[in-house]
Amino acid sequence: MTYELALDPDGTAWVCRENLTAILERELLGPMYGDREVIKSPPGDAYSIGRIATRRLTDSGDPESEADGSLGDAASAKLSTGVPAEASDDSPVDADEDANEDVGPRRGLMIPASMGLRFQIPTDLDSVTVTARWGTYRSRAVEPSKTEDETGRATRQRSEYVRTPWEITERLLVSDLIDNPHQSVKLSGTITLEVDTYVAGDRMLVELALCNNRETPSRIPTEAWMFQTQLQVHADGACVFLPVRDILTEPDDEHDDELRRLSLQYRHRLEFAIGRTCSADWDDPDPITRRTTGVRTTWIPISETPRTEARPDDRVLTDMLALADADADTLADGLLPIADGYGAWLDEQATLAATLPAHLRAVADEASATPASSSPSSLTASATCSTTTMR
């Protein structure tokens, strides 16, 4: 298969990674061939993530359809939200698959009938805008009617699946959310946006859920599934979305010393939303206000880890052969800049710790404290001794 790459290859690792991510998204989430694609295989087979099922299964009236072993416990499904993992009319279970060690257990697994996210906004905000996106597929026969093979038996009619994109935008007034903490917004047919809010002081916690409330027989029709589901929330570009937790303003009641230090170390890596049956993503936050302009759901979360680069210093001796043959003076000249640089860095951290909120200073002071045995001179002497011994 030939892919249209998102970026022109230039030999860099970054471009290769971006293209690979785009390919994985098209393969696993879709749509692979555009918003109005036509695919040959059932969409449930083509795309393994990003879909939500109907809310309930109704009694089909056909005992055999619910006793074929492919739906898990259909009776239990009627009492819960979501459907058993193999309740699609396009994904029949092969009896031989149960013997395949790579096939996971199906009974008890449920495909959710909703997805969404949770975020926080200030209560003095005027409104937020929610955009819901998804795709539905309908099957159509490639041939007008069934044909017969040479034995006279009817052959299975071939089908293809046509995608219809959906995008619906709703504006939610914060004042209405305060007065009515639960709202159900009809988007299309039985598809709704469920909104739940909780006010705490000057901030509001908002939970959004895109719900497929349709009730279907135990073999769900293709067109009843929702694929490539997404919710996106913004406030007309305003930087108003609050972090889930900000260590700079909220005292940490964590008793584990390591976790307290990690919270301090990553105090600028803020989380602005939490996904529901999916993951969440957000725009780059403003480093001053520590807020962001928008949040959204995602089925393929991506996190970029900054590369660590050592500071260059021509005075530092790093050649192992040279270190092996160096005398004490050469070792001191070649290794002392490391110890001096480390000492200067510790002094910078101590200065920075003094600017932190009071509830973080103790952790910062402890992390940047320099033991007497770790002074630059002792570090150099230790390095000289170790190198001399190694010789």
Radius of gyration: 29 Å
- Main structural class: alpha+beta
Count of beta strands: 15
Shape: flat
Helical run tally: 9
**What order do the helices and strands follow?**
HEHEHEEEEEHEEEEEHEEEHHHH
Low-confidence blocks of residues: 61-80, 91-101, 103-108, 372-391
Mean pLDDT: 82
Tell me what portion of residues adopts beta-strand conformation: 15-25%
What key attributes describe this structure?
single chain; 391 residues; alpha+beta; 6-stranded antiparallel beta sheet; 9 helices; disordered C terminus
What is the fold's blueprint, element by element?
Elements: H1 13-28, E1 38-39, H2 43-46, E2 56-57, H3 74-77, E3 83-84, E4 110-111, E5 114-122, E6 127-141, E7 159-173, H4 174-179, E8 182-188, E9 191-200, E10 203-212, E11 215-216, E12 227-234, H5 257-265, E13 274-276, E14 279-282, E15 294-298, H6 320-325, H7 328-353, H8 358-368, H9 376-390
Parallel strand pairs: 2-11
Antiparallel strand pairs: 1-7, 3-4, 5-10, 5-13, 6-7, 6-12, 8-9, 9-10, 12-15, 14-15
Helix pairs in contact: 5-8, 7-8, 7-9
